[in-house]
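User: Some background: our group keeps a shared notebook of sequences we're curious about, and every so often someone picks one and asks for a predicted structure to add to the entry. Today it's my turn. The entry only has the sequence so far, pasted here. Could you supply the structure so I can complete it?
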Amino acid sequence: MNDSVSDFKEFHWLMDMIQTIDIGLVVVDSNFQVKVWNGFMESHSGMTSHQVKDTNLFESFGEIPEDWLRHKASSVFLLKCRSFMTWEQRPYLFRFKNYRPITGTEEFMYQNITISPLISTNGEVNHIAIMIYDVTDIASNKKALELANQELEVLSRTDRLTQLNNRGFWEECLVQEFSRHQRYDTVTSVVMFDIDHFKRVNDTYGHQAGDEVIRQVSQALRDNLRATDIAGRYGGEEFGVILPDTNADSAVVFCERLRKQIEAMEVVHDGEAIRFTVSLGISQANPSATDYKGWLEQSDQALYYCKENGRNQTRIFEEELP
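Assistant: Of course. Here's the predicted structure to add to the notebook entry:
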């Protein structure tokens, strides 16, 4: 009698623990008929144990990926071993709303899942236990950290004044593009350009006006870029553009469109209208450029030719350039 009372108390204690633990517990049979549905599941699903018991799990919760869960469960039934799923593999099994105050911006509860076999006295597995762990705080913090790292990475490669790529990152892209050309014999061009008589702008209107001119040129450059083009501020008033899959003649079309747009611009600063032009040098990757520095130097030579011959023009690098 005492043993029966003790067993009953132990059973009652066990059931109370199952109902009150802060973990979801669902027990289903091989047909996915629900046998146990604890308090956690009641609280987050809005459905009581009485409503769910002996119903088909997939019919009651249509958002559950049936094929995936059946595949996971089959190994548990067959091999009698646990199976796990983290929120990074699949954000959730049950689409429960997130009510945590700290991570209130998250729409749903992120979940880790454990599926365990329930082995009967005869050694067979006729039921499995699905345990749901609320890991919203962990997931949200990790996502926030990853986002912060991404933002830091963008900041580390971005020029603050122009919001273009800074020189370091742009040169890394130039190295990669030149390597791609050498390996696959791709057609690609690089453009170097700068603002004509920029020192005169600074001396006449001040450095803030000069900064505004640089910003406006950067915006004009962005307006003319394709998704695959890579632009950067090389330094001061000088800019670089990588034009993948573009020969020199097509690069001239890009440069002339940009040059004419900038020539027509007027930057107003402190009531003063500032007009200016740019000069542009082009080099299509070629055998005489043995590395990316030589390739860049060729476009710089073409730019220098423009400077020495009237400015406000575009020039393609040629071996016979003085």
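Suggested note for the entry: Residues 58 and 66 are 7 Å apart (CA to CA). Residues 1-9 have pLDDT under 50 and may be disordered.
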